[in-house]
Amino acid sequence: MLRKTLIVGSLLMAAGPVFAQNLLVNPGFDDPDQLTGWTCESIYGQASWSSIDSLGLAGSGSMQHDVAAALFNNETVVCRQCVPVSELRTYVMSGWHFWPDDPKVAQNGSVRWSMVFYGDTDCDPSSILGFPPATVGSRPPLALDTWHHLVSDEIMAPAGSLSARIGVITWQDIADEPVRARLDDLDFSTTTVFRDGFETGNLTEWSASGP
Questions:
Q1: Which domain holds residue 121?
Q2: Residue by residue, what is the 3-state secondary structure of the chain?
Q3: pLDDT of 58
Q4: How far apart are CA 98 and CA 4, in angstroms?
Q5: Which residues does 9 contact at the CB level (< 8 Å), separation at least 6?
Q6: 199 located within any domain
Q7: Which CATH number does the domain housing residue 128 bear?
Q8: Is residue 211 domain-resident?
Q9: Number of domains, the chain
Q10: Does 42 reside within a domain?
């Protein structure tokens, strides 16, 4: 029987506002090409597709990160994608992560969501505008063989933002100990319902006429 838990602390709980459309491509890893939409990299590890789905759905799966044992800690597997955003809107990143009970891995690691905002539509490094602190969900003391929910704080896109590079990262916290994590049902959405929340100091997009 699948088990899921919510990570509670300084993070938002899942029973928050109703989010808009998910901006990520292939967030549930249901695509036949498995990791379509994601660009992954690692020096001491790899990203792959796993047939283990957070909801137990046949034909679906999850993203698996394996960080190999290395002499130094802070080794990572990182998968990213570039998505369109609008300036001065607030966004939230969320998803589920799973630490398998496997004697071959130590599981002293962490999963992190990262966001970087850019002033062009292609996430060009020359147009970077800002990057808020990453949201971190460490394995200890979380239970193994259980899906855990991780939700970021609400982050406002800086003025001039046109795109954001969203990253999901598995981090090796202790040197020379391998780490494995699975990730599924990722979501990056705006929490801004109206096109102008009065951040610009005027009534842009609003009409004073009657019904």
A1: 4-11+19-190
A2: CCCEEECCCCCCCCCCCCCCCCCCCCCCCCCCCCCCCCEEECCCEEEEEECCCCCCCCCCCEEEEEECCCCCCCCEEEEEEEEECCCCCEEEEEEEEECCCCCCCCCCEEEEEEEEEECCCCCCHHHEEECCCCEEEECCCCCCCCEEEEECCCEECCCCCCEEEEEEEEEECCCCCCEEEEEEEEEEEECCCCCCCCCCCCCCCCCCCCC
A3: 86
A4: 9
A5: none
A6: no
A7: 2.60.120.260
A8: no
A9: 1
A10: yes
Residue by residue, pLDDT tens for the chain (211 residues) are: 454 554 433 333 333 444 479 999 999 999 777 999 999 999 999 999 999 999 999 889 999 999 998 877 778 999 999 999 999 999 999 999 999 999 989 888 999 999 999 999 999 999 999 999 999 998 888 999 999 999 999 999 999 999 999 999 999 988 888 999 999 999 999 987 654 555 445 555 555 555 5
Closest-CA residue to 168 (of 183, 155, 152): 183
Which amino acid is located at 43 in the chain?
A: I
| Separation of alpha carbons 169 and 203, rounded Å | 40
Beta-carbon contacts of residue 89 (< 8 Å; ≥ 6 apart):
156, 157, 190, 191, 192, 197
Is 208 domain-assigned? Answer: no
